[in-house]
């Protein structure tokens, strides 16, 4: 069983090929859009969408040079949550591939993908597990009991951890994404013994199981306004880009401020994880995942905390923290295994396209008691990607793919049921 997985939820185009029988990662590649969005201080959805339309086809071309389409057993794609204009690019390519190759299509929740990044290259899954998921869009504590039983036990009230770093870097005029930039400024401050600027620790006196970063982001801005550094930022247009970045990176104030943010933000995360651990002794494994779990201070502090509470700590490898398709392929193995164990659906023949409606009846795709797969499959039958794609070649795929940009009546993005906050993860109070 071989799985071709596609990730396009935000600003990274990624494809991976995984052996589903042993979870071996056979190939993976990613094209980041960071440089294109950097000057805007965040992801520009329309630009992202156009870059996906180009880069995903490039990656598929790379795949085709190494492997044959005929060995693929499943097409797997991130279908939520994320930027809808980004998600639909990957989903359109996945649909085109699935229909042309006549192989099943699975939708994978991006957050579950991050959780499964812990198990890339390992067939074993470790549950129950409590996960701190920190990314550009999410900050959550999730109790995971199985692929299908994941419960959000803490969420952010406002911004996410990664977003706070992104906004801080934007305020310093350092572009996007900000996580690595602020992290490395903070590390420099530590190595040069620069004292941090004192910033408040969010919700420190509140016995609430949740996170908050917008107040900290604002405190960062207020401190910045009091500094001489503000003048350099205001005059940024006077310098060429590299010179400006070097000036900021050599500024003691910028390093002190970055360290202040790093200390407050990570102390807040650790404080809330500790609050959770004190009250919940039943889960022995703890993990951090997501793009922002690459943060150096968070990685150090979480090791100390988990040792104190006698938890086993799992962390994704640094190269799998940020968005990638390998984690989506690995999550698909979890999903297929779970569904097989539950026997909730059986794949049957595709049958013929209904020539009048140009759609496939749902039951020709899945015998399905699983609502998630059912919704996804029915969306698939609604899409004009169902139009005849009898012969598979890159041209047809890129054509179908490019059409997804047309935004015409034939394709309704809403039918994908994509919503940034709509995760399939169950919430408990
Ligand atoms: O998971 P990811 O690649 O994309 C989303 O699903 O959002 O996470 C990207 C986020 C960005 O906000 C980025 O600034 C942040 O992760 N990030 C970091 C670090 N590296 C990346 N945040 C803090 N410290 C880092 N070292
Ligand atoms: Zn992510």
From TrEMBL:
It catalyses: L-threonylcarbamoyladenylate + adenosine(37) in tRNA = N(6)-L-threonylcarbamoyladenosine(37) in tRNA + AMP + H(+). It is an enzyme of class 2 (transferase). Residues 403-429 are annotated as: Disordered. SUPFAM superfamilies: Actin-like ATPase domain. InterPro entries: ATPase_NBD (IPR043129), Gcp-like_dom (IPR000905), KAE1/TsaD (IPR017861), Peptidase_M22_CS (IPR017860), TsaD (IPR022450). Its EC number is 2.3.1.234. Fe cation binds at residues 110, 114, 323. Keywords: Acyltransferase, Cytoplasm, DNA-binding, Endonuclease, Hydrolase, Iron, Metal-binding, Nuclease, Transferase, tRNA processing. One of its GO terms (molecular function) is DNA binding. Residues 25-329 form the Gcp-like domain. Required for the formation of a threonylcarbamoyl group on adenosine at position 37 (t(6)A37) in tRNAs that read codons beginning with adenine. Is involved in the transfer of the threonylcarbamoyl moiety of threonylcarbamoyl-AMP (TC-AMP) to the N6 group of A37, together with TsaE and TsaB. TsaD likely plays a direct catalytic role in this reaction. Belongs to the KAE1 / TsaD family. This is tRNA N6-adenosine threonylcarbamoyltransferase. The gene is gcp.
């Amino acid at each position: 069983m071989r799985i071709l997985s596609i990730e396009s939820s935000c600003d990274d185009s990624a494809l991976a090929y995984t052996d589903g029988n042993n979870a071996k990662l056979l190939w993976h590649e990613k094209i980041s859009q960071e440089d294109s969005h950097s000057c805007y201080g965040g992801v520009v959805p329309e630009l992202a969408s156009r870059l996906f339309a180009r880069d995903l086809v490039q990656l598929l071309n790379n795949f085709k040079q190494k492997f044959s389409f005929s060995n693929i057993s499943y097409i797997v794609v991130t279908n939520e949550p994320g930027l809808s204009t980004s998600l639909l690019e990957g989903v359109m390519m996945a649909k085109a591939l699935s229909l042309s190759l006549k192989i099943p299509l699975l939708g994978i929740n991006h957050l579950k993908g991050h959780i499964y990044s812990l198990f890339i290259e390992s067939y074993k899954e470790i549950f129950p597990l409590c996960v701190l998921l920190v990314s550009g869009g999410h900050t959550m504590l999730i109790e995971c009991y199985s692929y299908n039983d994941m419960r959000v036990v803490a969420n952010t009230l406002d911004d996410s951890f990664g977003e706070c770093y992104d906004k801080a870097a934007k305020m310093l005029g350092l572009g996007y994404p900000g996580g690595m930039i602020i992290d490395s400024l903070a590390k420099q401050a530590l190595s040069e013994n620069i004292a941090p600027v004192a910033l408040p620790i969010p919700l420190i006196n509140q016995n609430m199981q949740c996170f908050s970063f917008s107040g900290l982001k604002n405190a960062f801005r207020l401190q910045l306004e009091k500094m001489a550094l503000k003048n350099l930022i205001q005059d940024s247009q006077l310098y060429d880009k590299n010179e400006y970045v070097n000036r900021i990176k050599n500024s003691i104030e910028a390093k002190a401020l970055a360290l202040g943010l790093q200390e407050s933000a990570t102390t807040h995360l650790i404080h809330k994880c500790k609050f959770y651990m004190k009250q919940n002794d039943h889960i022995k494994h703890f993990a951090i995942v997501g793009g922002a779990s690459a943060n150096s201070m968070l990685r150090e502090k979480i090791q100390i905390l988990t040792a104190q509470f006698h938890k086993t700590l799992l962390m994704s490898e640094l190269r799998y923290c940020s968005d990638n398709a390998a984690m989506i392929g690995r999550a698909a193995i979890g999903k297929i295994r779970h569904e097989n164990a539950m026997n909730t659906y059986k794949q049957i023949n595709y049958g013929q396209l209904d020539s009048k409606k140009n759609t496939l009846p749902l039951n020709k795709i899945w015998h399905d008691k699983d609502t998630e797969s059912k919704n996804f499959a029915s969306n698939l039958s609604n899409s004009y990607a169902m139009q005849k794609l009898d012969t598979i070649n890159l041209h047809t795929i890129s054509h179908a793919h490019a059409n997804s940009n047309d935004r015409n009546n034939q394709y309704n993005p809403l039918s994908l049921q994509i919503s940034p906050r709509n995760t399939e993860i169950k919430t408990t109070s």
